[in-house]
DNA sequence: CTTCTCACA
DNA sequence: TGTGAGGA
C-alpha cells in the first residue's frame, strides 16, 4: 500500500491525539465541527485519527497560536476532505507539495512527544516540533 | 477507565 | 474553551 493511504489510515483515539498535539479533547472536537479535520469513526462512534489528521491538528495549533481564527485557518489550509481513496489519489500531487516532513521525521517527533508526555517537564510541541509548523 | 454529546452557574 | 451530566 502507498504512503498516502498509510497516512490516512484511522489509527488512534482522541486520548493519544491529545498527548501528541497537546490540544484538549474540547479543542479537537471543536475543530472537527468546523471541518478542519474529518476523523473516521468506529462502529461505536469513537473517533479514530490518522497521521494526516494529527499533522493537520499541529498546523491548526500553530496557526491558532499565531492569532489566526477558525475562518482564517479554513482559508489558509486547503478545504480538503480526503476520505475516499480516489480523493486521496487525486490530491496526491498537492499533498506532496504541502508536505514538508518526511515519514521518518514525523514518526520520530511524534514518538518522542508521546514518551515525553509524562507529568513534570514541558512538552516539546512548544519547541522543536512546533518550529516545523510555525515556519509555514 | 476512555470517549461521546449536549448544555451552561 | 472549560466543565459537568448522563450514557455507551
TrEMBL record:
Residues 11-79 form the HTH merR-type domain. This is Transcriptional regulator, MerR family. PANTHER family: HTH-TYPE TRANSCRIPTIONAL REGULATOR TNRA, REDOX-CYCLING DRUG-SENSING TRANSCRIPTIONAL ACTIVATOR SOXR. InterPro entries: DNA-bd_dom_put_sf, MerR-type_HTH_dom, MerR_fam. One of its GO terms (molecular function) is DNA binding. It comes from the Bacteria. Pfam families: MerR_1 (PF13411). The keyword DNA-binding applies. Keywords: DNA-binding, Repressor, Transcription, Transcription regulation.
Amino acid at each position: 500500500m502507498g504512503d498516502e493511504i498509510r497516512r490516512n489510515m484511522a489509527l488512534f483515539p482522541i486520548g493519544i491525539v491529545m498527548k501528541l498535539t497537546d490540544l484538549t479533547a474540547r479543542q479537537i472536537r471543536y475543530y472537527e465541527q468546523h471541518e478542519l479535520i474529518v476523523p473516521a469513526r468506529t462502529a461505536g462512534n469513537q473517533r479514530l485519527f490518522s497521521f494526516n489528521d494529527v499533522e493537520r491538528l499541529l498546523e491548526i495549533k500553530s496557526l491558532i497560536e499565531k492569532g489566526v481564527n477558525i475562518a482564517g485557518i479554513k482559508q489558509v489550509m486547503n478545504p480538503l476532505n480526503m476520505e475516499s481513496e480516489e480523493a486521496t489519489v487525486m490530491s496526491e500531487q498537492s499533498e506532496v507539495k504541502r508536505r514538508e516532513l518526511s515519514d521518518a521525521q514525523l514518526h520520530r517527533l511524534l514518538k518522542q512527544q508521546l514518551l515525553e508526555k509524562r507529568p513534570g517537564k514541558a512538552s516539546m510541541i512548544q519547541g522543536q516540533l512546533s518550529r516545523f509548523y510555525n515556519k509555514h
